[in-house]
């Protein structure tokens, strides 16, 4: 049983999983692709593996564009918060300016009343 199992592998010379993955992703050269396709015709093990890898690589692509969409949303949000932070700092500057003017006026009035006496 074990020997027979080993025989299948040596006789058919299955491509490695990396090669199959490259085949699924279309990263192989025309020659390599042809070799893999020939092999897939008489190897159930590899054609099943390719089916599984196709499903996996398609699954991988979904979080890819989801991540992209998420990234776009996050960037929009970041721009909004940056804008809000900017207007918050303007408000802060305005309050500080008003407080300084008020203090100057207060000092002026204190000084004025002080010299008037
Ligand atoms: Zn095979």
Automatic annotation (TrEMBL):
<feature type="transmembrane region" description="Helical">
    <location>
        <begin position="89"/>
        <end position="111"/>
    </location>
</feature>
<dbReference type="InterPro" id="IPR041916">
    <property type="entry name" value="Anti_sigma_zinc_sf"/>
</dbReference>
<protein>
    <recommendedName>
        <fullName>Putative zinc-finger domain-containing protein</fullName>
    </recommendedName>
</protein>
<keyword id="KW-1133">Transmembrane helix</keyword>
<keyword id="KW-0472">Membrane</keyword>
<feature type="domain" description="Putative zinc-finger">
    <location>
        <begin position="17"/>
        <end position="46"/>
    </location>
</feature>
<dbReference type="Pfam" id="PF13490">
    <property type="entry name" value="zf-HC2"/>
</dbReference>
<dbReference type="InterPro" id="IPR027383">
    <property type="entry name" value="Znf_put"/>
</dbReference>
<keyword id="KW-0812">Transmembrane</keyword>
